Amino acid sequence: MSEKHVDGVDGLKRSIDWKQGTAIALGVPLLILPSLGYLPLYVSAAAILIWALSTLQGFFQNTAYAEMATTFPKTSGVPGFAQQIYADKYPGRHGKGKLIGGFTAWSYWFGWNPILAIFALLVGGYLHELFPALGAAFTEYQLSLGAGVVIFGGLFAVNWFGLKDGAILSYFLAALSLIPLVILTVAPFATGHVEMSNITGNWWPTDWAWDMHHILILFGVFGIAHWSACAWETAAMYGPEYKNPSKDAPKALFACGIICLLLYVLMQASVIGVLGVDGVIAESVSPLIPVAQAVFGQTGIMLTVVIVMLMAAMVLIIQTAYLGSSRAMHSMAVEGNLPRMFRHTNSHGTPYVSLIVIAVFNLFLISMGNAAAVLAASAIGYTIAHGFSLFAYVITKNNPAYADLKRPFLAPKGWKGVGLFFGLFNVPLSVIGVVYLNSLEIGWTSTIVAFGVLGIYVPIWFYTQHELKRHDKEAAAIRSSDHDLDDEAADLDRLPDPIR
User: Where are the transmembrane segments (predicted)?
Assistant: First the structure.
């Protein structure tokens, strides 16, 4: 266990380049899977347009984050610079700036953290549907829980040895994930299974009206899509661990963004083109399975191989979320916004306490048994985090105290307005929309869970401030004791030699 500053921040080590950062973040395209059947339920084939616009929103937001990642290279991405900026804006060791920054980071953590549970549930669902023997012997919940234990435990073991080894695993998993995604996206077009009339003939719901009800639904749909399509900002999380953060962070961000833009648009188009809107809604949990069956036949080795590869690819997005949320917790502890135990790293620079807590928390979330419900709760935290993070970016552009900071990557002129626009789009508009959408679809459980988890941060933060004060008093007492011993030694040095 080590807390000393190595060459990153509080034990984090500068060990990866932009290619490794991209590989870790390449699990992000998998985030479309829980929503492939969800968005068409509300906006039909226009879901294709929603994904395109949401990914472009990611480019606007992540351009601001790329500037922040290079301006504050020792902070861990979005939660790191948000904490620093709000603390600077409202100074005071235990003041409201620390609370606002800490809450932003906590919201971000809650946005990413449940991905482990969501994809463990999806893996369990795929296993239950693909392998009848397993489906007969175990319930879907049991398979999901077992998948969670195995995946979380395996990733903990691999990442115990540092981010560099986790990045090596990500190279393998990235290839494994992109292959089935590309196959299931491109093959239906190549084999003629995509019927364009399924898209053009059902572009927008027939009962759609531009009233307040449907506008709130649209904001909610954008909030859910934002959770997936903008998530490649995670490539900026590893600022303290990039060898050359001023160049590595922007390269990793934009490389991942281009891949997401292509895959998100084409994948939704492929699924709707093959199954039609009604077919996608009927298979809302795992629409890629009937697409694969349409292309490769109802049974066969190729079908099984592609689906197994897809499930293996889900391990990559779980790894992406696992690493990103653990760095968020570590960053919060370093900034004094979570208890000191979350600062602990092992000799390889791994924040292992955070990894353990995240794994246990997600095993609990799996008990909700519904990936859509977990996602809906998670999206509230994620959207709040990005709203406040973009407001933090605006602060750095307005505050003269930041005027002289080196900005190796500088967003285009006028980006302050872009940041403010999307900050307000996220908070309050998309947050209100997601809450409204939740109330229509799955009741109030997800919203209650979301605001419950977000709200519990306040007493945790006050406990942390109490812990810091106690630690300061203990440190001051030790310094005072050392000073008294030094004075006593000095008095002895002044005594005449015979007496000594």
Answer: 39-60, 99-123, 143-161, 168-192, 212-232, 252-275, 295-323, 349-366, 372-396, 417-436, 442-463
Give CA angle at 469 (463, 471), nearest 5°: 100
Give the pair of three-digit tokens for residue 143.
């398979």
More confident residue, 332 or 349: 332
Per-residue pLDDT, 116: 94
Question: C-alpha angle 238/9/24, rounded to 5°?
Answer: 15
Residue 244 structure tokens: 């050359």
211 to 67, 207, 222, 237, 354: CA distances (angstroms): 38, 11, 17, 39, 45
Backbone angles phi, psi at 366, to 5 degrees: -60, -30
Nearest CA-CA partner of 236 in 172, 160, 324: 324
| pLDDT (0 to 100) of residue 467 | 92
* 437 plus 471 within the same structural domain: no
Question: What's residue 500's pLDDT?
Answer: 36
Q: What percent of the chain has pLDDT above 70?
A: 90
CA distance 89 to 68: 16
Mean pLDDT, the chain, rounded, equals 86
Segment among 1-10, 369-378, 431-440, 486-495 with least mean pLDDT: 1-10
| DSSP secondary structure code for residue 193 in this structure | -
CA 335 to the chain's CA centroid: 19
CB atoms within 10 A of CB 312: 16
Q: Are the CB atoms for 109 and 101 separated by under 8 Å?
A: no
Cα–Cα dist 20/494, whole Å: 61
In this prediction, residue 387 carries a pLDDT of: 97
- 121 with 151, same domain? yes
Q: Of 299, 289, 354, nearest to 327 (Cα)?
A: 354
* Structural domain contains residue 10: no
| Number of domains composing the chain | 2
The two tokens of residue 392 are: 């933090």
420 and 494 part of one domain: no
The predicted pLDDT at position 1 comes to 35
Residues 110 and 237 in one domain: yes
Task: Give the pair of three-digit tokens for residue 138.
Answer: 């175990």
Phi then psi dihedrals of residue 351, to 5 deg: -75, 80
* 312 shares a domain with 460: no
| Vertex 433: Cα angle to 431 and 437 (nearest 5) | 120
Residue 390 and residue 107: Cα distance in Å, rounded?
14
Whole-number pLDDT of residue 94: 62
Residue listed under structure tokens 């922007």: 250
